[in-house]
Specification:
By secondary structure, the chain is of the alpha/beta class. The protein folds into three domains: about 260 residues, P-loop containing nucleotide triphosphate hydrolases (Rossmann fold, 3-Layer(aba) Sandwich); about 100 residues, no CATH class; about 60 residues. The strands form three sheets. Strands 6-7-8-3-9-10-13-12 form an eight-stranded mixed sheet, with helices on both faces.
């Protein structure tokens, strides 16, 4: 590639993306690169700086999760990636080519084709006047991604089957479906385009718990089969931990920490990350009652003279802080002792409640590793009631694999089942005794 081609690539004057993106120092291909971006809404005194100096890379084939509280700028960044929100500063690169700002029409179409979005509210993101068939086919029509009508129908039917719906659903309208089904339609609309990058903007937050697991399994299925890369936007860290390769934490529009998923949970160095993890609800009501909530106070930082930077503290772990804080973070990380952001106070005195840490490491590990499918369904109770022996066996298996809710459901059904059987046997024995007498 000569100098002119390099300049054209950097400035966005190319008409097509290269086959591969640039390679990072760790040897991974960078698909999307966010570089020092600012996003501002409004003008003059009314201007609101929603995102400031945000930077991170997303590698091809991974799930990068962006987490933070409501209003922190997660969705704003996601919408900037699909070129809806303009940037006030910085740039966004896709495969090393700038896609933010003004770019050629042909390149803009390539962005639309290769970068799709799954929205948070499936009801608001689907055209209520269009059939499911047209909703899924719209992208195919716009980019003519089919050979003939039979090919289009085949692609749509294959995709509707892959997301767990039926071909007869194609003639219906969005209002005829449940929230989970509508989200599947939105996912099918995005995936039928065969995108390389999908921006998933809290796709499960509006769904029931049992449906969430199904949608997450669908996302991972597409990633395995089609090598899709995800920018997953969420605020629920308990879900994010199990689906993410890397996690970025954002606070008031600024990225404060980026690390691998397990690295971030073992070493939440920034105080805001610490507070987010400590806020994850514990399924056990006794532990939850005595949990010490860590509250993040931004005034704890003194950035008046020692200005903060976003730097790597080792182990591909990036944290935002001034020189003094960064040295402390490096020292903590180099000690290699995992931190305990979740603390459980002792039940005896108020002083103990305020200062005691988790003493039962097994209970903490059990909480952090709670399986996604541990729902405690009523059907486990019903089946264990009618088949109490199998119910006890199932309960023991669930307990062994830390499915605590399922264990309790099977145990409850089996105990009631045994009680009913024992009662019936006593009645039968009593009637038999009376008959003999």
């Amino acid at each position: 590639m000569n100098v002119t081609e390099k300049n054209n690539k950097t400035s966005g004057r190319v008409s097509r993306f290269p086959e591969h993106g640039p390679i990072a120092e760790n040897g991974k291909e960078i698909l999307l690169s966010i570089k020092d971006i600012d996003i501002t809404f409004g003008k003059g005194d009314d201007a609101v700086r929603a995102v400031q100096d945000a930077s991170f890379d997303i590698y091809k084939g991974e799930t990068f999760s962006l987490v933070g509280e409501s209003g922190s700028g997660k969705t704003t960044i996601g919408r900037a990636v699909i070129r809806v929100n303009p940037l006030a500063a910085g740039e966004i690169q896709y495969k090393g080519v700038r896609i933010s700002g003004k770019i050629p029409h042909s390149l803009d179409r390539e962005v639309i084709r290769n970068v799709q979005m799954v929205f948070q509210d499936p009801a608001a993101s689907l055209n209520e006047r269009a059939t499911v068939d047209y909703i899924i086919s719209e992208g195919l029509y716009n980019f003519h991604l089919f050979k003939n009508e039979a090919d289009r129908v085949q692609k749509v039917e294959n995709m509707i089957n892959e997301v767990g719906l039926l071909p007869e659903h194609l003639t219906r309208y969005p209002h005829e479906f449940s929230g989970g089904q509508r989200q599947r339609i939105g996912l099918a609309r995005a995936m039928v385009m065969e995108p390389e990058l999908v921006v998933a903007d809290e796709p499960i937050s509006a769904l029931d718990v049992s449906i969430r697991a199904q949608v997450l399994n669908l996302l991972k299925k597409f990633q395995r089969e089609k090598q899709v890369t995800y920018l997953f936007i969420a605020h629920d860290l308990s879900i994010v931990r199990f689906i993410s390769d890397r996690i970025g934490v954002i606070y008031k529009g600024r990225i404060v920490e980026v690390a691998d998923a397990e690295e971030l949970f073992d070493y939440p160095l920034h105080p805001y990350t610490h507070s987010l993890i400590s806020a994850i609800p514990i399924p056990d009501p006794k532990l939850e009652k005595n949990k010490v909530q860590y509250i993040y106070d931004p005034s704890m930082h003194d950035y008046s003279e020692d200005k903060p930077e976003f730097v790597c503290v080792g182990h591909d772990h990036y944290v935002y802080g001034n020189k003094k804080e960064i040295e402390e973070y490096k020292a903590i990380r180099e000690r290699g002792v995992p931190l305990k952001p979740i603390q459980i106070a002792g039940p005896d005195t108020p002083e103990q409640k305020a200062t005691a840490e988790v003493t039962d490491e097994v209970a903490e590990a059990q909480f952090l590793n709670t399986p996604v499918h541990d729902t405690g369904s009523i059907w486990y109770t019903v089946l264990s009631f009618f088949l109490p022996v199998l119910g006890i066996i199932a309960a023991l298996l669930f307990k062994k694999h830390l499915h605590i809710r399922n264990y309790k459901a099977c145990k409850k059904g089996a105990i009631v089942g045994f009680a009913v059987i024992l009662t019936l046997l006593l009645i039968f024995a009593l009637l038999l005794l009376l008959a003999v007498i």
